Each structure stands twice: as C-alpha cells, then as structure tokens.
Input
Amino acid sequence: MVVDLARRQGIVELKQFTRSREAVVFTMAFPIIMILIFASIFSDEIAPGVNYTQYFITGMIATGLMTVGFQSLAIQIPIERDKGVLKRYRGTPMPKWVYFAGKVLMVAGIGVVEVALLLAVSIGFFDLEPPASAAKWFTFAWVSILGLSACTLCGIAFSSVPRNARSATAVVTPVALVLQFISGVFFVFTDLPAWMQQVAAIFPLKWMCQGLRSVFLPDSFATVEPAGSWELGKVALILGAWCVLGLAICVRSFTWQNKYSR
Amino acid sequence: MGNDLAVSVKGLRKAYGRTVAVDGLDLDVRRGEVFALLGPNGAGKTTTVEILEGYRKRDGGEVRVLDRDPAEPTADWRGRVGIVLQGTGEFEELTVGELVHHFAAFYPKPDDPDEVIARVGLTGKAKARTHGLSGGQKRRLDVALGIVGRPELLFLDEPTTGFDPEARREFWQLIRDLNAAGTTIMLTTHYLDEAEALAQRVGVIADGRLVEVAEPGRLGNRANAPATVSWRTPDGTVESKESDTPTALVSELAARFGGEVPGLTVTRPTLEDVYLRMIGAA
Ligand SMILES: Nc1ncnc2c1ncn2[C@@H]1O[C@H](COP(=O)(O)OP(=O)(O)OP(=O)(O)O)[C@@H](O)[C@H]1O
Ligand SMILES: [Mg+2]
Output
C-alpha cells in the first residue's frame, strides 16, 4: 500500500519531468554537447594508450549523474516549495518520505536513460571501449548507483539552502561547476595543484570520476592516479559517507514551506 | 471524542516580528456547522486558519482541531481535515484528472475522483494540463483536491475569489451538499452575501481579534439597529435622523408637513453597513 504510494509518486514525478521539454533537453543533451565540444578540441594522448577524450568522457558520465541527482533536485525543490506544491503535499496524510521516494525514483529513471545515452554516443562516436569484463560492469553499476544516491540525497539536503526559487539556480550552479573543475572532469586530476586535489577529495564527484575511470581506462592508467591505484574501497567508503550525511540533513532540516508561509 | 466542537481556540496569538497578526483570538466551530470568518485584508484570517491547519506555529493560546493540537498533526488527523489554501500550489505539467486521482490515493477512504471532478464542474477539463486552466478553474481544482479525501472538517480560505457569479452559486450548492452530508466547514470570505448565504454563524475579525460572532441576520444587532429617517426640508436640503422609534418620527413629520413628507425614506443598516461599522470601530 505505502510502497504503491511511492511508486505512484515516482510516476507522477517522471511525468512532470518528461513533460517539461526544456528540462529533458537540457539534462539529456548538455553532457553530450560538452563531449562533442571537448572531444573535438582536445585529443592528445595523456598517458600511453589513453587520450584525453576517454578521460573526459568518464568525467562527463560522472557529471551527468551529478546533474541529474544534485543539480536538478537542488533547483527543482525550491521551485516546488515556492509554488506551494510541498505545502500542499504536507496538508495530506501522505507520509513525508513518499515525496523523497518519488524524487529518488525519478532521478533513477532519468539517470539510467542518461547514462545509456552517454555510453551509446561515446562508444559509437568517440571510440570509448565498453566495460571489458563482468567485474568492470559490476564496478560500473555500483559506482553509478552509489554516486547517484549520494548526489540525490545531497541534492535534497541542499535544496533547503536557496531561500527561494529565483536564487536556486544562482546558488546551485556554481557549486556544481566548481566541483567539475577541481574534480578531474575538465582537467586531468593529477595535473591540478595539490591543495585543489585535497579539497576535491572531500566531495563525491572526484571519487565518482575515479571509480568510472577504473571501468573505462586501461589498468595501466591506475599508476597515474594520485595514490597509484584506483582506490575502489575508498570510493565506496566516501560515497557511502555522503549518502549518510545527505540523508541525515534531509531528515533533520528539510524545509517544506518558505519563510513567507510559516 | 464526544466533543461537539470541531474547532476550539482560546487566546490565540501570533506575531511576525513586530507585526501582531492574531492578538488573543477566541473562537469555536461546532461540529456540523458552516462557520464563516469575515474580515478586511490583513485582519489575520489566513494566519488563523493556517494555524488551525497545522501549517503555522502559534506564539500562544490553546487550539484544538478535531480533538488534537494541530501543531502536532498525525497522518490520521490529516486524513480527516480537508484544506483549500488561499494561495494555490501548482503542478503545471499534470492534468486535472491525474492530479485528483493522485491525491485521492493519499487518503484512506477517498471519494471517486471522477465524481469529485464533476462536482466542481471540471469534467470537460479532466484531460487538460493544469497550467492552462483559467483562474476560476484553478480554484475549482483546489476545491476538488480539498474534498477528495472526504474530510470531516473542511477549511476554505477565500474559496470563491475569481469565480464568476454562476460558479459561485454552484460552489455554494456544493458547500451546502457537503454540509448536509455531515462535513463541518470553516471558510473565510470577503463577500457578505456569501457569508449570509452559507454560514450558520459568522465571526468578524479585525486587527487579529474576533469582534463578534453571530448568526448572519443578527450580526451587529442588525435587527434592532436604529433606523435612519430622512426627508427634504422646505428650503431644499436633505435632513436625516437616526431613531429607535421611526414610526413615531414619521407621524410627527407627517403632522408637521400636513400630509406627505417630501423625499421620505426609512432605512435600516444593511449587513454591509453593520460590517463596515464593526471593522471600522475595531
Ligand atoms: N509570513 C508572514 N510574514 C510576515 N507578516 C505576515 C505573514 N503572513 C501574514 N503577515 C501579516 O499578518 C497580518 C495578517 O495577515 P493574514 O494573511 O492573516 O490576513 P488575512 O486576513 O488573511 O488577509 P487577506 O484578506 O488579505 O487574505 C498582516 O498584517 C500581514 O501583513
Ligand atoms: Mg488571507
């Protein structure tokens, strides 16, 4: 019964998403356009057998997951709060978690399509090798799921930071953009200054990128990583920690109404 | 249980910073009645109603709504209370039908969503996205979402703002039907005729205080209010006089004019006069 409610909520969320055309186009097409641009400009070899395009594509897959989970929710929820959508849900006997479950299902749905699309484009046009073994597929799956979960929970948690819908984009976009610059999406991570690497290592995106590189880049590239290995254990640990932190913040301080209606 | 009050409020207080919105308000709504809260802009109607709905925190006073403190709502309690807010929450990309069906699923014993859509007169728009609805149609949708859970107690904050006259009549009938089926209703309004047509009791609120509660016909002691007699004096000016005994005054005038009194009118205050006097005096 309650699970059914969550499923319905997820469907309603997905319906709303797919029906707002600009959201679909922006979310889905943006990473692809970025890949087209960057892969056409930079194609140098950054290590034996690895060119920049492959490196950048893995970063873009991670970025796509972050956009779907973090950016879209941290911007969309304040809009819904301002429009009184949240207030309206709160006036019904719907358990609060159903609202979050709906968002999670929506993000999962969009995330799957987004990643499939990116993979298809990258493999079809930019010579990305699909994961070579079952073990790599498994790593790909858990890094994506755990990373997307962390981003989703942090996105819901962060949605309480912008005070209104108008400021949401302005507050959220720079956070996401800065993370992309310092986490090894646009630049090879180990080329960045040490202090920047240390800052990036606090946040999930760096670990998502690293986890995905272990899937798509040759094993020889591991030696180029900061620790000289893929550090998959640490990837799992840090992404898991962000899930816990995000969830704790959601539970404690999610705001259902803006300050003008309290 | 066994309490015959659906809502009871004693000494309610709420301030926003330095603005005192509700200042020691007392109010009861009996089970089964339609209660209208009337008051000018900024009087504190929305603040009061949203405290009763569990949306806003109060600064003081005792409040019971269906035997619970609304500051600590439970899912069961929420299921028994229907809410139509003054400001609407928009789900732009969904259709009317999808939305009402979705909300029905939140409640333990909902009404048939399609029937609810018909009752608010939106059947023709059931497949339309809500962002394309007119103002009055959006308001009807708000009402549909408020009643689809078959509430025991229904709050409506200025429900008919934006309705055309016919829609308003239909809405009144809907409220009467719901009330006849046992729903207790508390609504706010700026329309005196609405309060008069629907409510068994009317409360007038001004500056965060309840000025009076009465049956619409007795508000401001209207039935016994002094009448105003006016007439034209021989030099052409209009003179008028308030009187508790207008009949005596008229016969005195008749004697003075030796027959017909020029321009004679005798009026008692309308509900509007009484209301304006009450909120002006507050
Ligand atoms: N969130 C808020 N923050 C600050 N002041 C508020 C807030 N909500 C209401 N007020 C103030 O409290 C007072 C009462 O407002 P309220 O909305 O309760 O009035 P109302 O009777 O519903 O008016 P209206 O008929 O215009 O809807 C007003 O002076 C208003 O400016
Ligand atoms: Mg109001």
Q: What stands out?
A: Chain A has one domain: 2-261.
